[in-house]
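To close the chapter, one final illustration. This time we ask the reader to focus less on the individual chains and more on the assembly as a whole: which components sit near each other, and how the overall shape emerges from the parts.
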Amino acid sequence: MTVEKIMSDSESYDDFPARLRVLAVDDNPICLKLLETLLRKCQYHVTTTSQARMALKMLRENKDRFDLVISDVHMPDMDGFKLLELVGLEMDLPVIMLSANGDPKLVMKGITHGACDYLVKPVRIEELRNIWQHVIRKKRTEPKNQNGSADQGNDNQSSGEGNGSQADRNGKCNRKRKDEEDFSEDNENENEDPAASKKPRVVWSIQLHRKFVVAVNQLGIEKAVPKRILDLMNVEGLTRENVASHLQKYRLYLKRISSVASQQANMVAALGVKDSHFMRTAPFEGLGDFRTLSGQGRFASAALSHYTTGGMFGRLNTPNVNLRNLSPSTLIQPDHGQNITNSISSLGKVHPALASTNQSQSLFQGIPSSLELDQLQQSKCGTGMTSFNAIDNSRLRSRFSDPGAAINSSSNIFNSSTNMMLHGSYQQTMSGGGFGNQSSQNMASLNLDTFNVGVNSSSSLLDSGTIQSSTTQPASLLSTEPFHSQPPMRTTGNSGFSNDPYLQKNPIDISSSTMSLPLEDSREMQYQQGLVGDVQNISHIPSQRWGEQGQSYGHGSTATFGSLNAHVPVSGVVSPLSHSLDQDSGIVNEKMGVFMNGRFAGGASTLMLQNGNEKLASESRAMANDSFLLEQQKIQTVFAPRSYDPLDAMMNAMIKREQDETIANYDFGFDDYSFESGM
Amino acid sequence: MEGNQLPCQASYMRNALFNQGYLDDQFLQLEDLQDEANPHFVEEVVKLFYSDSARLIRNIELTLENTPSDFEKLDNIMHQYKGSSSSIGAKKVKKECTQFQEYCEVENIDGCLRTFQEVKQEHASLKRKLENYFQLVREAR
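The assembled structure is written out below.
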């Protein structure tokens, strides 16, 4: 039930905590029975199961069936933390951990994986009486939207999608399904979903983010104030607070990008893989199923191939864009699968121009899920559009040390990725990017768009900058960052933006970079903006750093390629989309920030190289596609390669090569999966 | 028996269990959960505990026999058992479980073996007492 629903029902408000629908999971029958009885005593509606897999199945069957999950840590069929991540990413529900072991380290682990609370057995009834607060809190988090405005209209669709909440994860997933149309409507952000229990959140879709970035650029980053941005954007339903928080994230992203510039890791454009989507698409269960992502990852691979041209990058080196290893692979998990490829391509395209927006804005371009971005020096560009796509946010998070990496939340992420990279200027480039537009043009195009959105993603994506290649398993990635998009995945500072949730870390070769995209961390995804998502892979990005897998955030042009994920083994250090790009507000190119570090495996790098600044758009598309936009929007943005530079062509070529590789990485950033697979 | 005696006997025994440290506050929680909707809750849970824990104890025994150096496994099983026993408030049993886990941590097989004997003893002893207790309670009903 949504908060609104609950609260709005004045009569029932008093017993609000009652009727809370809880799913209890514990393999110990005594504990389970006890827990069930305790919860019933609190007047909650309880469903129990002793198997984690069964629990997941139930949750997936109907996302709206439960408000809260309580799970034991120690379970034979699946680790409690893993379940936690999955739930967080896919469904974005609050999860409470339970264990007989009260060791602070374990408690910490729970928190970093995104648990709302950690209870030690034996549990007392008093403790359970308060758990409903987690539900409310979650609903309220993120976009300040909570607003009771139950926008049923929009949300109906989104409800499935995970109301914009958290890290888009859910939303993204849903969104993806719903496709862009829904998304666009929803985008108005307020995804409130009265029906869904998810919290209404503003979902920063790529388009929205793009508008945001445009507005910011018009006003000038220094002078951009929420009120004015809001006015310029002229989006109904958007509040000043939404903009303010998004702006904050964006600023962080930019900062991160710039700092990333010096580092390599940036890149990883948080593959905006919105995990949720990915999750869905990919059998999340296996997290490791990223491979399946490959399907989606196709994109990635495609994108990656572009990126791979790492070598290209060297050449491409468009002054601005330094695509660092954009490991496109990771991100690209766009829901649409396709997107990723696009994103990747877009990543490639991400013109370096993007990078410059702020210069430091290293837009992480396509932060590959694994955010290999480390390299992204420039991360600024955020081009690393990490296609977060599936990036498990959770995963990504952890991995993603890079800021960009975490690009989780699909919605955000994307934005971030794109934004990041393109830092606003893109707006156009994105689409053009012609990045390898691989398959999913959607992605790419989307990415570009999203890039604009960059704002959101930037924060997250950029994590890529730091995406450390730590090949951490994607799963852990997320865990590190409690999904919340907020915690920039460790991304080292990449793009100040959001943790590149999606930085999928490309497994060292970007290809595998698992999408560290924090995608989803559903909870975390809050990042919404914060791409951070769980950029799990952040660690990956081994050399490639490429924006993690090219997560190419397809954010609109600016976003850089977010999708660079994974593959983009951007070998050449792609300088983060050379931020040098003039700050033009519209110039995407500059911002390319594709961080693709060298590796840009795939398109990602190309994106950057676009140098054409405008190119970024395309790149970002590619990249971003995956991650961000994909999620919901059907990143259909076909990337119309705008200024398809010769570089792009190269990139594409590269990306194609990388394709195979990238796809592997594509993993949504789920643990290792992507990376290793190297698809 | 005289109606008024049984209850006394049952409550006497119950008090003894608490005083002697066999049971802790968690048991009270179980009792609190018992109501009209769940009239035999405590007994049900305890029964469940004994049937489930028999299996766990058996597993530990087998592991100690076959692969005594697999401390991780021992610790895992014991973790389960400890979780159950703490859920019903079995204080002494829980204490022994903790001790056992500590030995596992330092990989002291002798310590584990010794402590395990204690665990089994406490397990059996509490089981008897609770069985008696519930018997008294039933008779008093």
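The interface with chain A takes residues 26, 29-30, 32-33, 38, 41, 44-45, 48-49, 52, 76, 79-80, 82-84, 86-89 of chain B (CB under 8 Å). The CA atoms of residues 56 and 77 of chain B lie 6 Å apart. With these observations in hand, you are ready for the problems at the end of the chapter.
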